[in-house]
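Homework help board

Subject: predicted structure for assignment chain

Our instructor gave us this sequence and asked us to write out the predicted structure in token form, then describe one feature. I got the tokens but I'm not sure how to describe them. Can anyone check?
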Amino acid sequence: MFQCFGQRFPQESEMKRLALAACLAGFALIPHTLAAQVSIGGQGSWGDRRDWAVGGRLTWDLSPRGAPLAFIGAFDWFFPDVPWSTDTDYWEININAVYIQSVYSPEAVSYIGAGLNIAHIKAQGTIGGEPFSEEDTQYGANVLGGTRYKLGRFAPFFELRYIIEGGKQFVITVGVDLLLGMDY
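My token output:
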């Protein structure tokens, strides 16, 4: 555990283990009799405070079985442009629940939702000739909306996300999902 702003937080390795355990527990608690559409994908993002990012996502879409709901887990590795001589690593994990609505056909859907955000930054370098090293992880919430269009086994998407706490930025994301489930 480390302290930041007077609060105690788990170390990064502890957080990774907790996030993995939470994801696995979430999937294990879901009844296996409820078939769903699972997809994995790649994405590119732009954040108004952290510049460009690349990442991936996992989507569990319940709408093929009648529930207009999906769960989206996404990871973005940002490449922030910083004004001083520093090596900066910044990433975000977002775990979201979204409501799905068909737009024109079952292939074209729009979605809105909310979720949790974990933002981590690590910077080291020099300022004014003095070396420094800082690291911080923040937790928050986000709201999002997007559109996805199924083209056979592929589904391109466009998404807007506003991170209210944690990373505190507006993010535009585009990408393509590969549909893995039975209903494609």
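Reply (TA_rk): Your tokens look well-formed. For the description, you could write something like this. Confidence is low (pLDDT under 50) at residues 1-7. That's the kind of observation they're looking for.
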